[in-house]
Amino acid sequence: MVGNDFNEIPLRLTIAYHGAHQNNITSCSFSNCGRFFAFVDQPQIVLGYCVNDLLSTSLDENNFKPSLSSHCQTSSLLSDEIINNTESLNLYANLTDSSNNWKILTSELLHGDALHVNMKPIFRIKTNGDVISMTFASGDSAFCRLPHRANKRRSSIVRESQVSLLLLGLASGVIEVYNVFSLVSSSPHIPKYVLTDDCTLVYLLSAAIDGSLRVGSVHRGGEVRLWDLWDDGNMYGKLQHKFTIPTDQPCSEIQGEACTFAWHPCGRHVFLAGERGHGVVLDAESPFSRVAYIRSGHYHRISVAKFSKDGSLLITASYDSCCAVWSVPEYQCLHRFWHMGREPSIPLRGGSNGHHIYGLSLSPDDFYFITVCEDRCIRLWPLAPVNSPLKIYFELALQTHTNLKFRSLAFSPCGRIVAVTTNNHDVLLFTTRSESIRLGTQCLHAIRKCVVENILKKTMRRSIKYQYHNNDSNDMSLTTSNNNYNTLFQNCILQIHLPSPVKKAILRNFVN
């Protein structure tokens, strides 16, 4: 049963941005520090906003509805020098003004009653190519990958011991890296450096969250590259040849083509998934040994993969209309969330079903996650074994614009804002209830994280294979019955001397 934490979570559309040019807004992202939000306004233009400005524009703390009186107040986190520099950055980019493209949706409907507001970006970036993907990265020099040579190899944009970076992946194959605080400073010159290896489009960027400034990039053709930004942007790994899945036939492996990538929170492992619904878990350092693999569970392209913040679960989304939850570290399927309202037939899973899942994002407290789907609905799900979402936003599904698609999805680190972008030049900002993470929730998170990290240390060099519950080798589906759960994580939790309700809460009700 879903706990009370899920029963009162609102998901309200409160602010929207509609640009003057009908472009794809291919990507959006929040900084890890929670202060900045950026999105691709035009193919070669990136806009950045202060999250506090978005919050003050959209929220009335008393009733969680749009505030008409407190909008456009500059964040107190920014100095007067940064505030005064906004205009100079606008001139530097030589762009048309976009501050009037925002509106507060008083009716909570995109095409309902609205009030236009004047909200200026705090930075604009003009890139040297079309931006396809972006991500923020936070670094702490205490966690750099190669400390013995870090001081000699640091670029000028990572001179400080703690930095916040914005990475932009271009269609040309180049990755542009900016220091966020340089973007909002008074300097007339915005420093950057460039990562490049060949000319294949950068489909996805993902940064490790452990402060090591390691970045994974997924390129057209399935190549995955690993970069070390503390080490002057050195590329230290190519993983495409490591994306192989064993089969039941001797000396036979499935060659994969990666289309998504994720870092485990502890930074020890990376997850790659591909077009055919397969996935592989590798060590994050050379020789990039295979730790585990997913050979079944999805029937179509795995479009998104996210680890829970405590590292105990992996959530994958696929074009087969399913989100799957996997245990870590053996990656056994625990539950599936079907977006068609039921489990579809095999032909629908592997083909055109109208419910391809394009995006997935977890809340900061790991209580729930949000997906965007081909049917133009936004679904809020609890991270628990349920069969129905908590809420479905379906206004866009009712529109006659047949080519409308969602492009990206992001949760703010504070959990207050969910951002969704479309190919119709819309940025939709949804708000959630303002609640600090409870002490009990933090304790559960700490227990899960500690247990997972200790398990990973013991299994670092061991390949963990799946236990199939069907003797028929042609049936490659994983059993999802709770009676068959027997994971390392659950065994460790069950051995801890805690009350049964606490153990069940730690396991998120994924056991009987």
UniProtKB/TrEMBL annotation:
Keyword check for Cytoplasm: no
One BP term from GO: protein polyubiquitination
UniProt WD repeat ranges: 295-336
This protein's UniProt keywords: Ubl conjugation pathway, WD repeat
Domain of life: Eukaryota
Keyword Nucleotidyltransferase among UniProt keywords: no
Protein name in the entry: Uncharacterized protein
Source organism: Schistosoma margrebowiei
